[in-house]
């Protein structure tokens, strides 16, 4: 992507700019047609140093020259005051307080951390699925004390959640509610950040446990695939909105998560049962997935993939090493769509956990917010 746009550049900041997700933000934003990197933040270990000295650069793409001499800032609002958008790739141990302080300073935060995903006024948005949930932001701003004009927090999902909700949403859009979902993940080591899982724990091995991950998949999927309902507040009959968590057609989910010796690219084996009888055939499911177009793409978000879901016909695809870079990791890959003898249909999903699983999702969320006029451009 080249920086070619009639829009005046929109200044953005990156918190956690030295981390795995932060580095992917830098790679993507350095060539973004609308956004220009204005400020970088990380821990006090990095603050005060030129970015090239502070970071342990691990991207395949070379470090963009524009950021090499930028001085890394402490993660406090003042150096980011001119940013219309602040992206966060902060460690969850510190993201809560820092992101809340940025919101209170009336800054728009797009976060990858888990801290606010369960907040009833914070949208959990996978941009290729539920950008409509951004409508809750007015309520988040109004309920903040004091009320905010520009500041808010938008979160994107856990990297595995993101991978499977995209095909699941495409199927619900075509065939109606999913009733039951079984998912088993094969998650890359980059999902744990850098340096992540020690090599002696993961080489020649599979670790059948990732702390908190199964609960995230089960809970976040319901918030993302569910809708938003109006409720009457006890305070003066004011109409508030709440996430319905897919309550109208309760969704049973069981997730099992494994760490595997792959550098980038989460795979998941998914089986689904539909509410409708008879269920769609594997051929109908393949066609619906391939035909799905996201609202973000239709609205003209420059980072949205042209093909949201690529369905592979070969029996041994997708594979992390061969398919994760397809469309710069901005879409998802599906394969092996077939009948499930226990539920209805089963298939494999692959997604780049650092791109659409993290940084790319945040960036498309911000693009949608610009197009909807939620962020000043
Ligand atoms: N990796 C993935 O695939 C993925 C996918 C989805 C979501 N996420 C989420 O995204 C976030 C970042 O993940 P990551 O994999 O990029 O982690 P990471 O590689 O460990 O990077 C963490 C970043 O947080 C900064 N940081 C740590 N302590 C800080 C402090 N006290 N004050 C300010 N900054 C501090 C680090 O700065 P220093 O370099 O100065 O220490 C670094 O920039 C996490 O919340 C993670 O759960 C990750």
Helix vs. strand class: alpha/beta
Flag low-confidence runs: none
Count of domains: 2
Radius of gyration, in angstroms, nearest whole number: 20 Å
Strands in their spatial order, largest beta sheet: 3-2-1-4-5-6
Number of helices: 12
* Average pLDDT figure: 96
CATH topology grouping of the largest domain: Dihydrodipicolinate Reductase, domain 2
The largest sheet, given as strand count, sense and whether it forms a barrel, is: 6 strands, parallel
Give the CA-CA distance, first to last residue.
20 Å
Describe the protein.
- The protein has two domains: 10-158 and 359-371, NAD(P)-binding Rossmann-like Domain (Rossmann fold), CATH 3.40.50; 159-353, 2-Layer Sandwich (Dihydrodipicolinate Reductase, domain 2), CATH 3.30.360.10.
- The protein is 29% helix and 22% strand.
- It is built from twelve helices and 14 strands.
- It has a six-stranded parallel beta sheet with strand order 3-2-1-4-5-6, with helices on both faces.
- The structure holds NADP nicotinamide-adenine-dinucleotide phosphate.
- Residues 16-22, 42-43, 45-46, 75, 89-92, 94-95, 112-114, 159, 190-191, 193-194, 353-354, 357-358 line the site of NADP nicotinamide-adenine-dinucleotide phosphate.
């Amino acid at each position: 992507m080249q920086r070619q746009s009639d829009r005046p550049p929109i200044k953005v900041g990156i918190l956690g700019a030295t981390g795995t997700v932060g580095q992917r933000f830098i790679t993507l934003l350095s060539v973004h047609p609308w956004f220009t990197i204005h400020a970088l933040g990380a821990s006090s270990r990095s603050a005060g140093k030129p970015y090239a000295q502070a970071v342990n650069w691990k991207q395949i793409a070379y470090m963009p020259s524009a950021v090499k001499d930028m001085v890394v800032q402490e993660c406090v609002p003042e150096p980011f005051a001119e940013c219309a958008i602040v992206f966060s790739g902060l460690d969850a141990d510190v993201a809560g307080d820092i992101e809340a302080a940025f919101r209170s300073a009336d800054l728009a935060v797009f976060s990858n951390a888990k801290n606010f995903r369960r907040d009833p006024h914070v949208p959990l948005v996978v941009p290729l699925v539920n950008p409509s949930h951004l409508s809750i932001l007015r309520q988040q701003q109004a309920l903040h004390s004091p009320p905010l004009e520009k500041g808010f927090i938008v979160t994107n999902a856990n990297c595995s959640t993101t991978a499977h909700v995209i095909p699941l949403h495409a199927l619900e859009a075509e065939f109606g509610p999913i009733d039951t979902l079984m998912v088993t993940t094969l998650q890359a080591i980059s999902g744990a950040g850098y340096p992540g899982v020690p090599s002696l724990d993961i080489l020649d091995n599979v670790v059948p446990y990732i702390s908190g991950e199964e609960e995230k998949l089960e809970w976040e999927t319901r918030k993302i695939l569910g809708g938003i309902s109006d409720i009457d507040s006890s305070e003066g009959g004011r109409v508030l909105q709440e996430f319905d968590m897919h309550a109208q057609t309760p969704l049973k989910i069981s997730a099992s998560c494994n760490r595997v010796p792959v550098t980038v690219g989460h795979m998941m084996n998914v089986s689904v049962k539909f509410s409708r009888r008879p269920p769609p055939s594997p051929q109908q499911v393949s066609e619906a997935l391939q035909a799905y177009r996201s609202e973000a793409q239709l609205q003209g978000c420059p980072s949205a993939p042209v093909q949201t879901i690529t369905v592979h016909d070969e029996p041994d695809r997708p594979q992390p090493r061969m398919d994760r870079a397809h469309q710069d990791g901005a879409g998802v890959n599906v394969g092996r769509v077939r009948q499930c003898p226990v539920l209805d249909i089963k298939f494999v999903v692959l997604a780049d956990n650092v791109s659409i699983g993290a940084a790319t999702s945040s960036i498309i969320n911000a693009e949608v917010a610009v197009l909807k006029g939620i962020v000043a451009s």
